[in-house]
Write a structure and sequence with these properties.
- By secondary structure, this protein is α+β, with helices and mostly antiparallel strands.
- It folds into 2 domains: 61 residues, Signal recognition particle alu RNA binding heterodimer, srp9/1, CATH 3.30.720; 67 residues, 2-Layer Sandwich (Signal recognition particle alu RNA binding heterodimer, srp9/1).
- The protein is built from 2 helices and 10 strands, in the order E-H-E-E-E-E-E-E-H-E-E-E.
- The protein has a 4-stranded mixed beta sheet, covered by helices on one side.
- Strand 5 and strand 6 form a beta hairpin.
- The chain is globular and about 55 Å long.
Length: 152
Amino acid sequence: MQTTTHLNFRGDARQALEFYQSVFGGHTVLNTYADFGMPAGLPGADNVVFGLVTSENGFRVMGYDIPGQSGGSLAGGGSTRRENNTTVTEQALFISIESESLDELQGYWDNLAADAVIVEPLAASAWSPGFGMLTDRFGVTWSASVSGAPSR
């Protein structure tokens, strides 16, 4: 069995999925409403009805544009922030990524961080040699960590 996160956007699924492909590599599949029969001249016909990014490193995410919605942002958005040393969120989900090394994770982090809101900077933590959280330019919050216990 395999699970895949499916993100629902308000008009910017194409930009988000292309961005994630630029960060994690692999390939992108983008099918529009017009590809499945919506007349090309109608508003939203070129929005994404099925989108997928998959790469050999194990990264996989799907996305689409909610019919009739525009204005960008992730459906069900909300904010994630730190208050009093605690993560407080209004979001229903985060995407969690793990890498075996801090160097590998740092590369993904640096690319995801473009125009992002940093919730927690990527740094050593009590449970990982590297942990951080950010909300990317599309409203998706990412939890990033180095797998394995920190050395003591």
